Automatic annotation (TrEMBL):
Annotated keywords: Cytoplasmic vesicle, Electron transport, Heme, Iron, Membrane, Metal-binding, Translocase, Transmembrane, Transmembrane helix, Transport
Gene Ontology terms: cellular component: chromaffin granule membrane; lysosomal membrane
TM stretches of this protein: 23-43, 63-84, 96-117, 137-159, 166-187, 207-227
InterPro entries for this protein: CYB561/CYBRD1-like, Cyt_b561/ferric_Rdtase_TM
Superkingdom field: Eukaryota
UniProt keyword annotation of Heme present: yes
UniProt name for this protein: Transmembrane ascorbate-dependent reductase CYB561
Catalytic activity: Fe(3+)(out) + L-ascorbate(in) = monodehydro-L-ascorbate radical(in) + Fe(2+)(out) + H(+); monodehydro-L-ascorbate radical(out) + L-ascorbate(in) = monodehydro-L-ascorbate radical(in) + L-ascorbate(out)
Membrane-topology descriptor: Multi-pass membrane protein
GO molecular function: metal ion binding; transmembrane ascorbate ferrireductase activity
Location in or out of the cell: Cytoplasmic vesicle, Secretory vesicle, Chromaffin granule membrane
Organism: Silurus asotus
Length: 259
């Protein structure tokens, strides 16, 4: 009986330690993938398409894919991950970081959109004609709406606690949907650029763009996996539960609805 009573807590401790060790590995892998996506995009546009400029030329167009991958994919994904990375920090600090990362993603994405629209307008090329442009613009608009609603509901809360608890699952769900949409739009843009470039089969540029696409998919899948694993959620904090806009009150018999 004594042996059994000691073995169970030890097993629990080892299991918890294993989970703690696994999360940093997943997060580190996501950062390697995200940085690799940004670097490959930079190399693609810099080496194969003449570099970068802001003069309404092809070099200005090159700013668009770099900014979109950096902003609405990589930084956006990191903003989604902060609730898992900083699991033991104060919730308000994590919310501010979450909002700031998404604001950076938003600003960089705006630069990327301005770059491509300006090039098209100066060259007399029509805007918003491809499926990539439609999906990309829809993703950006929904991202902007999501960010504004997040500020209003959670960082500078004006809504009632009931309304915030109703909206939180939607906020979390659409956060992952938007990441999937951003990756999908990026893949369509990569394919569109490769087709317009008329690349021969297995050309070095084509191989690079295919690798970039695979890395983008892996980044999105890994972020989604980390965010949806139950054991990686923020541990309950009784003091924050009583005050946080993300939790049900302690008198309610329901699971805290934290991201």
């Amino acid at each position: 009986m004594v042996t059994g009573s000691v073995a169970v807590p030890q097993a629990g401790v080892m299991e918890g330690w294993g989970r703690f060790q696994t999360l940093p590995c997943y997060v580190a892998a996501s950062q390697v993938l995200g940085v690799a996506c940004v670097v490959l995009t930079g190399v693609w546009m810099g080496h194969y398409h003449g570099g970068y400029a802001w003069d309404s030329s092809q070099q200005q167009f090159n700013v668009h894919p770099l900014c979109m991958v950096m902003g609405i994919v990589f930084l956006y994904g990191d903003g989604v991950l902060v609730y898992r990375v900083f699991r033991n920090e104060s919730k308000r600090s994590v919310k501010i970081l979450h909002a700031l990362l998404h604001m950076m993603a938003l600003v960089i994405s705006i630069v990327g959109l301005v770059a491509v629209f300006d090039v098209h307008n100066k060259a007399g090329f029509p805007n918003m004609t491809s499926l990539h442009s439609w999906c990309g613009m829809l993703t950006f608009i929904l991202f902007l709406i999501q960010w504004l609603l997040g500020l209003g509901f959670f960082l500078f809360p004006w809504a009632s606690a009931v309304l915030r608890r109703w909206y939180l699952p939607l906020h979390v769900f659409f956060g992952l949907v938007l990441l999937a949409m951003a990756v999908g739009s990026s893949l369509m843009g990569i394919a569109e650029k490769a087709i317009f470039s008329g690349l021969p089969p297995f050309a070095p540029e084509e191989v690079l763009t295919n690798m970039l696409g695979l890395l983008l998919v892996c980044f999105g899948v890994l972020v989604g996996y980390v965010v949806t694993r139950e054991e990686f959620r923020r541990p309950p904090n009784p003091e924050e539960e009583a005050l946080s806009v993300h939790f049900n009150t302690l008198t309610e018999d329901s699971r805290p609805s934290t991201p």
